């Protein structure tokens, strides 16, 4: 009996195992094809589409739009694994150059530029190629293995392999190029002086964003060509933007959000030096000039009567070429220098606020041995206008001696007062920059260091 | 017995069921991956006939993210820089070793792969990495795009790199007497070698400042500097050292190198140097 039971249990157990062993393990397929088939399909799709555009593709590559601008690249692929390329990285990179490319299958499908061409200029880690000290050994943070993310409206969407894991990394879009794009590539460089800007169009440069009804304004700060990076700021925010050039304007990244529209393509207007991106329903963004400040700050309060001593000073030559000196300001300084003997020049214009002994005064200092001239003033604030008004309280020198300074001095002591603003940029030295502007908006604005 | 027979039959039936039940699995078909060999260019064919066939070395110049450090900002070489670089490597390094060590020497002990990188490999301390030898298998050479075969200093630096890295490959295959070497100038090694000058390092018994990073680099630097220098140039280096002890220390290290080549590979190190010198002159002048 014992043996019989043992066999019975064994057989039952064995049968149970067999009936469960062949359970159907197949899972319901979410896709028609296997992952390998889908990857292969994507690979051949990319291979084919790259060859479809007769004049190749154009991409403005922003390697890191938190610190660098965009570089326009043109690509023309051929079926034998060769690619012709040109870029506006520098003036020697605009002629076409041929190298190899490959479509590689890894965790995803990627386009790889396998031998050196223009795009590799962005990943040159030699010390001389670093755009800033912080980027030593990293060049322009570029990549040349682009993971393929599919198509959108005839555009090919990629992400750089190096940064694809970062959810904030931006797309690289290949759009169909035209023969005009190839012909005009070197015209991108002609846009650089316009981006740097010129204050002949106004004492202030700002960014004006209109969403159809309301207007928001920012200062547009001086632009750095080596990084192709700039910024726009108001009292509470500091927004960096990378800039890429085109023959008729600029492309920016990150794009400016107006309502639910993203504006990034700006067209240059040579008549007023402005760049404008136009959306729909009255939305627009415009980098433009005005004698009226775009941002008025509360910084004047720190210079009001009763505050501790503060000194700001225009210092030649560090601040001579500052773009935030308006044309009127430069002309007045030039006029003073022209009136001085050849061995002398204006070295500083300093405003000392709230000195314990002498109150507030404007000092004019000279190179070449000429004695300092001081203009004592009284101050009052106009809180409604956010200005400080400097009023004459006597000079250290007689009328004949101070005559040469009269016109410049009249701007600083004008009855409407001065806008005093701490700027978001520095020039040459690390000192904070303050600008002093005539509050009558006549176009006078002078740049000073906080001393 | 009856019962046992009955269960025997059942057991056989179950056994057959077990063997047959899961037999209808799909058999693997042809691979879906594309295994077609890419078209070979003239350059690829040249590499095959000058590296792959004679030395069993794969010279890789196209970018492959798996053979480089992706945290660095590097780029592949310009196409027309590849062959000149490989010719220099072939003439000065491979041929010198083949002549002195025997035709099969490099074939047996060689990196299986030479990876060419066009750009500079910058380190955070401001130095540049010129070459890397990995696991006795792969040598990566950087700055191929800067190579100019008419410029002896540039050629010498490039060859210095490959001689240095190949010494590592040899060491990774057959170790040298690291303990004995370490006793010669034990106090001169430093992690901040890049802040030292070569002149000052020579006064401490090191052939270069980089030799001070550790014993293994010291060996590779000592051997490779002798290999890329003429007999007279090396004598001048020794003569320029004012410390008699430092000079003697470098010569002790030189003796270990010579002994290592003789005992481990039965190779006359000085003959190798003369051959490399002859081939270098050929490259620069032709």
UniProtKB/TrEMBL annotation, chain A:
Keywords: Signal. Residues 1-23 form the signal peptide. InterPro entries: DUF4302. Pfam families: DUF4302. This is DUF4302 domain-containing protein.
UniProtKB/TrEMBL annotation, chain B:
Keywords: Signal. Residues 1-23 form the signal peptide. Pfam families: Peptidase_Mx1. InterPro entries: LP_HExxH_w_TonB. NCBIfam families: LP_HExxH_w_tonB. This is Zinc-binding metallopeptidase. It comes from Flavobacterium tagetis. The lineage of its organism: Bacteria, Pseudomonadati, Bacteroidota, Flavobacteriia, Flavobacteriales.
């Amino acid at each position: 009996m014992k043996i019989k039971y043992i066999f019975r249990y064994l057989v039952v157990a064995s049968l149970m195992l067999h009936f469960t062993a062949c359970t159907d393990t197949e899972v319901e397929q979410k896709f028609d094809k296997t992952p390998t088939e889908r990857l292969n399909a994507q690979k051949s799709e990319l291979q084919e589409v790259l060859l479809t555009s007769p004049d190749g593709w154009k991409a403005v590559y922003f390697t890191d739009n938190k610190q660098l601008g965009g570089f326009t690249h043109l690509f023309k692929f051929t079926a034998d694994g060769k690619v012709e390329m040109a870029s506006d990285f520098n003036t020697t990179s605009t002629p076409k150059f041929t190298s190899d490319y490959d479509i590689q299958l890894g965790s995803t499908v990627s386009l790889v530029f396998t031998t050196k061409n223009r795009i590799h200029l962005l990943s040159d880690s030699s010390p001389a190629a670093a755009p800033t000290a912080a980027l030593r050994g990293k060049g322009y943070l570029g990549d040349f293995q682009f993971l393929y993310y599919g198509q959108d409206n005839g555009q090919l969407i990629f992400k750089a392999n190096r940064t694809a894991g970062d959810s904030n990394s931006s797309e690289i879009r290949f759009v169909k190029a035209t023969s005009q794009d190839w012909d005009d590539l070197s015209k991108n460089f002609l846009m650089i002086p316009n981006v740097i800007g010129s204050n002949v169009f106004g004492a202030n440069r700002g960014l004006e964003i209109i969403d159809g009804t309301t207007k928001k304004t920012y200062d547009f700060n001086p632009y750095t060509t080596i990084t192709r990076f700039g910024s726009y700021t108001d009292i509470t925010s500091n927004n960096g933007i990378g800039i890429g050039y085109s023959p008729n304007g600029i492309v920016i990244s990150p794009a400016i959000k107006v309502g639910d529209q993203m504006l990034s393509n700006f067209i240059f207007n040579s008549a007023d030096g402005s760049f404008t991106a136009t959306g729909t329903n009255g939305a627009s963004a415009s980098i433009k000039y005005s004698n009226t400040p775009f941002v008025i700050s509360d910084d004047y309060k720190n210079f009001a009567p009763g505050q501790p001593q503060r000194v700001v000073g225009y210092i030649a030559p560090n601040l001579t070429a500052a773009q935030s000196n308006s044309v009127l300001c430069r002309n007045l300084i030039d006029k003073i220098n022209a009136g001085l003997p050849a061995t002398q020049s204006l070295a500083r214009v300093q405003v000392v606020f709230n000195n314990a002994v002498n109150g507030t005064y404007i000092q004019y200092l000279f190179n070449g041995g000429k004695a300092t001239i001081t203009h004592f003033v009284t101050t009052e604030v106009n809180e409604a206008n956010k200005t400080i008004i400097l009023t004459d309280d006597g000079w250290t020198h007689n009328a004949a001696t101070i005559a040469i300074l009269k016109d410049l001095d009249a701007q600083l002591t004008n009855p409407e007062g001065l806008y005093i603003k701490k700027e978001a940029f520095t020039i040459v030295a690390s000192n904070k920059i303050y600008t002093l502007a005539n509050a009558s908006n006549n176009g006078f604005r002078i740049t000073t260091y906080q001393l | 017995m009856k019962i046992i027979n009955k269960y025997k039959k059942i057991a056989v039936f179950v056994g057959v069921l077990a063997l047959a039940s899961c037999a209808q699995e799909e058999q693997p078909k042809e691979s879906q991956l594309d295994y077609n060999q890419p078209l070979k260019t003239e350059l690829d064919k040249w590499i095959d006939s000058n590296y792959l066939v004679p030395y069993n070395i794969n010279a890789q110049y196209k970018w492959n993210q798996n053979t480089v450090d992706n945290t660095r900002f590097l780029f592949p070489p310009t196409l027309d820089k590849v062959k000149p670089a490989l010719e220099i490597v072939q003439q000065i390094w491979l041929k010198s070793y083949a002549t002195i060590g025997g035709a099969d020497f490099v074939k047996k002990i060689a990196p299986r792969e030479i990876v060419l990188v066009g750009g500079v490999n910058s380190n955070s301390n401001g130095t540049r990495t010129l070459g890397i030898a990995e696991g006795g298998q792969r040598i990566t050479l950087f700055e191929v795009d800067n190579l100019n075969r008419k410029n002896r200093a540039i050629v010498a630096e490039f060859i210095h790199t490959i001689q240095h890295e190949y010494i590592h490959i040899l060491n990774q295959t057959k170790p040298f007497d690291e303990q004995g070497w370490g006793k010669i100038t034990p106090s001169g090694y430093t992690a901040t070698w890049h802040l030292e000058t070569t002149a000052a390092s020579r006064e401490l018994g090191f052939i270069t400042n980089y030799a001070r990073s550790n014993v293994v680099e010291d060996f590779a630097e000592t051997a490779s500097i002798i290999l890329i220098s003429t007999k007279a140039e090396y004598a001048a280096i020794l003569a320029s050292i004012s410390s008699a002890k430092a000079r003697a220390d470098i010569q002790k290290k030189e003796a270990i190198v010579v002994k290592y080549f003789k005992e481990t590979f039965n190779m006359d190190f000085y003959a190798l140097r003369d051959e490399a010198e002859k081939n270098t002159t050929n490259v620069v002048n032709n």
